[in-house]
Specification:
Elements: H1 13-29, H2 36-43, H3 49-53, H4 57-84, H5 90-106, H6 108-121, H7 125-148, H8 155-174, H9 180-195
Helix pairs in contact: 1-2, 1-6, 4-5, 4-6, 4-7, 5-6, 5-9, 6-7, 7-8, 8-9
Length: 201
């Protein structure tokens, strides 16, 4: 199983405050707006606070990528634990997954930062490695969920499912707020019942 990204519980309160502010800046302005000054303003801290912890913009990008990856991995691990309690219950699996995705879409800062950083990672090998660690972890978890549910599974099948999840999340962000819940429910039901077919054993 792939190693998990650095855990967010190890962060000092001030560092967490800065990274939460960075998430908000990226959600509002994209990576173009991510500067030390912008983070300080968002956090309500004196100018120079962010640069005291993260001296360069690259250090800020790396720390934010680790923070996003660790937060998402923690959510996925929690989902996996919940699903272990209902093996074979496909409807329950869809419901729990939809509940997580709905929270991600409603609390959109984390998801928007993940999308922005994924694009940046396509041009930055260091960020790409951090994102790959989180993605591999997600593929491992999804493969384990499919196995526990008695479904046909493989790493390739799980990776396809994860890529489809990415598309559903992005599409949900583009929907009117009132339409997102129904869209997620329909899309996940279709995807998870079609891709996670019963094993042929």
């Amino acid at each position: 199983m792939s190693p998990s990204p650095p855990v967010t519980t190890d962060l000092s309160p001030r560092r967490r405050q800065l990274l939460d502010a960075g998430l908000q800046v990226v959600a509002d302005e994209g990576l173009r707006g991510l500067t030390h000054r912008a983070v300080d303003r968002q956090a309500g801290l004196p100018e120079g606070s962010c640069s005291a912890y993260l001296r360069t913009r690259k250090a800020l990008l790396v720390a934010l990528t680790e923070y996003v990856a660790s937060s998402l991995a923690g959510d996925v691990d929690a989902l996996a634990r919940d699903l272990q309690g209902c093996p074979g219950e496909s409807d329950r699996a869809v419901q729990l997954t939809r509940r997580l995705f709905q929270r991600w879409v409603e609390e959109r800062e984390l998801l928007l930062a993940k999308l922005e950083l994924s694009l940046e990672a396509s041009r930055d090998p260091e960020l790409a490695e951090l994102m790959a660690t989180w993605r591999s972890r997600l593929v491992d978890v999804v493969d384990g969920i499919m196995a526990a549910q008695g479904k046909e599974h493989s790493a390739e099948r799980a990776e396809t499912l994860v890529s489809s999840f990415d598309g559903i999340l992005f599409a949900a962000l583009l929907k009117p707020r009132t339409a997102r819940k129904d869209f997620l429910a329909r899309s996940l039901q279709l995807l998870m019942t079609s891709m996670a077919a019963p094993g042929q054993g």
